[in-house]
Amino acid sequence: MNTFKHLLTTALIAASATSFAQSTTITVTTDSTSSAQIIRTRTRNYSRVTSDFSIYIGLNNFGGSLPASYELSPIGSRFVALSWQKRIPIAVSGSTKLRLITGPEVAWNNFMFQDRNMLVEQNGQVVVEPASVDLHRSKLVTTQLNLPLMLNISFRSGFSWSLGAYAGMRLDSYTKVKPQGGSPVRTHNSYNLNPIRWGLTTELGFRGDAKLFFRYEPNSPFRTGLGPDASVWAVGIKL
Predict the structure, then answer these.
(1) 38 has which bridge partners?
(2) Which first-to-last residue range defines the signal peptide (predicted)?
(3) Is the CA virtual torsion 8, 9, 14, 17 positive or negative?
(4) Residues forming a β-bridge with 83
């Protein structure tokens, strides 16, 4: 009878082990009042596709040889993105795990100009010229729908590194100029911006904590010959 009870208990434990999300302790008591503790720990399932939502917050700026009028405020020029990502396992059986990360994101580049400079379009060309009044704020904002594709490597130590590229299409762009003591004026226009932009991206993190990211677009966001030949970079934190 005792043997049957032990076999039945063992079968029940084996059948229910996969339903435990954390370590579970089960006490089995026999007729002889002896007891035994059986501990079953369910390991995390790394082989399934997971989803997450992330927020990128950082700074961005132009690169390259640009006129002095294109000088941007280093703190006021910000980058923000909202990202919905899928983490697709490729090789996750060992201590070093490899995944593919992709998913749509909406990104905003805020280019804040220094002093009284503002971006305008003249005779089909995009130029930066000084305003006739003092300005509290003058910036160019671009909104873009991106699709990144990154290869992620995570190590047993907890560190992870992602490297890849992204491409996106322009959804909107506008300038926002606010005179000192006045109301802001927002002007929507294409400003000779390329409808499609692409860049390289990398991310470095530790376990589930925030990650550092860096992005670089080698090509100018403006159409060739219709705006400055500038690269774009962004650096910040991924939450």
Answers:
(1) 26
(2) 1-21
(3) positive
(4) 54, 105
Unique residue bearing structure tokens 């996750």: 92
> 50 near 227, Cβ under 8 Å?
no
CA gap 154, 159 in Å, rounded: 6
Output the CA–CA distances (angstroms, integers) from residue 14 to 4, 34, 35, 42, in the order listed: 16, 21, 18, 12
How large a percentage of the chain has pLDDT more than 70? 81
| Cβ pair 46, 207 in contact under 8 A | no
CA atoms within 13 A on the CB side of 17: 13
Instruction: Domain 50-238: give its CATH architecture.
Output: Beta Barrel (2.40)
- 182 φ, ψ to 5°? -115, -175
Q: Give the whole-angstrom CA distance, residue 204 versus residue 162.
A: 7
Closest CA to 213 of 59, 9, 33, 63: 59
Residue among 209, 115, 112, 107 at smallest CA distance from 159: 209
A 10 A CB-CB count for 89 gives 17
Cβ(205)–Cβ(137) below 8 Å: no
Is 107 buried (19+), middle (13-18) or exposed (0-12) by CB count in 10 A? buried
pTM summary value: 0.78
Q: Where are the domains of the chain?
A: 2-40, 50-238
Q: What would you report as the CA-atom Rg of the chain, rounded to the nearest whole angstrom? A: 27
CA gap 82, 54 in Å, rounded = 6
Judged by phi (left if over 0) then psi (alpha if -120 to 50, else beta), residue 219 lies in: beta
